[in-house]
Amino acid sequence: MAAATEVKKDEKKKVAKPKTPKTGEEKKVAKKATATTPSKDAKATDTKKVKKTKKLKRLRLRHGRLYARAIFTGFKRGQRNQHPNTSLLAIEKCNTKEDARFYVGKRCVFLYKAKTKELKPHSKRKSRLRAIWGKVTRPHGSSGSVRAKFHRNLPAIYMGRKVRIMLYPSNI
C-alpha cells in the first residue's frame, strides 16, 4: 500500500512542461485560428436568432387566394377591326374550353392605382386604389381564354396586366 500512495503523490507533484517560445509566424497562425473559430456562446446566439425568425415566419401565415389570376391579352377582333367593348383574358392554369366554361358568369375586376386619393363608399379612408368591374361572358377559342365585358372599356395600355376573376357567383 505504501507503494500505491507514493505513486499518487508523484502524480500530484507533476509539473507542466514549460512551453517553447513561438516564432513570429507561429504566433500569427495561432491568432488567426483563435479568431476564426467562433466560441460556443456565439454559436448559441446564432441558433437563437435563427429560431426566432422561423417562429415569426410561422405566425405570419397568408390567407388563401379567393380569385383566379388572369392576364388581359387584348380585345375581341376580326382580321382588321377590333372591338374594345369585349376584352380577352388568359386565365392561369386554364388550358381547355371545358376549363374556361367554369368561369363563365363569374365577376372579374381590374385593379389599378391612380394619382390622387379618393374616398370610397363604405370606407373611412381615402385610397389610390381603383377598380373596373366586369363579367366573364363566354369562352374564346379552344385554349382556355375567355371574353369579358367591363363596365368601362379597359384602356389598351393595360394589355399584359393582371385581372382578378372572382369565384362568385358560384354554380356549384
From TrEMBL:
This is Large ribosomal subunit protein eL33. PROSITE patterns: RIBOSOMAL_L35AE. The keyword Ribosomal protein applies. One of its GO terms (biological process) is translation. The lineage of its organism: Eukaryota, Metazoa, Ecdysozoa, Arthropoda, Hexapoda. Gene3D superfamilies: translation elongation factor selb, chain A, domain 4 (2.40.10.190). Belongs to the eukaryotic ribosomal protein eL33 family. The keyword Ribonucleoprotein applies. GO terms for cellular component: ribonucleoprotein complex; ribosome. PANTHER family: 60S RIBOSOMAL PROTEIN L35A. GO terms for molecular function: structural constituent of ribosome. Residues 1-54 are annotated as: Disordered. Residues 1-13 have a biased composition (Basic and acidic residues). Transmembrane segments: none annotated. HAMAP family: Ribosomal_eL33. Keywords: Ribonucleoprotein, Ribosomal protein.
